[in-house]
Amino acid sequence: MKPAEPVASHAAFASPWRHPLTTVATFISRSVVIAELEARKLIHDPTELFTRAIQPALWLLVFGQVFTSTRAIPTGNLRYIDFMSPGILAQSVLFIAIFYGITVIWERDLGIVHKFLVAPVPRAAIVTGKALSAGVRGLSQAFIVYILAALLQVKLALTVPAVLGVILAVVLGAALFSTFSLIVACIVKTRERFMGIGQVLTMPLFFASNAIYPLSMMPAWLRAIALVNPLTYEVDALRALMLSSQASTYGLGRDFAVLAGVTALFIAIAGALYPRVAT
Q: What is the 8-class DSSP label of residue 3?
């Protein structure tokens, strides 16, 4: 008699397929864990938040006050101090985020990057967690700028939707420029090169935007650069949301679409390059 063929168990045919919602939930939870680890650094050393407050204070209290009194920059029906307050918030977020990549180089030197690489965590989740942590740091700057703007009698919109919109714009802006910073860090791999490139990039990004003057004042070539600069759209969204009776020049939908789209692209690139920082 022919021996009976073994019956394959049900487990042998079990599919490794996971529900998309489960995959997304796992990705988010792991990103939040990484963000929490990064955010704890602020609790242990909050002095960074206070030192970061000096720069926006100088811009608003000195530069803003002087140019408001001279009325040298045409800002329509807005006082110049009102016009520039959202731009200074965007600038503060940029300056924090653009140097965020140096933490990856420090972590490489301490052996932390190698631990992340052997952990069962997607590289994109690591990058997303770090981007969320940069967003937390950006929110601290928003708090400072709001206080300074209130003291300077800037006409702020303090409705719940407006404040939530500002929070979203700040987090997206911080995530965008921090992931860009991580990309640079993964390529250059040394602190000295990174600091040099960061300093070279910061000012062009800031001045080639609508942060402290309208695009209409720019020459055509600079205006073309400003229109592909993500900071321009962050400032546009912040100006529409922070100030009373102000509308977005490009539309809030377009502003947030640009910020979210570029952030997603940078997360994908940084996630792919992240293992290179350990080599």
A: P
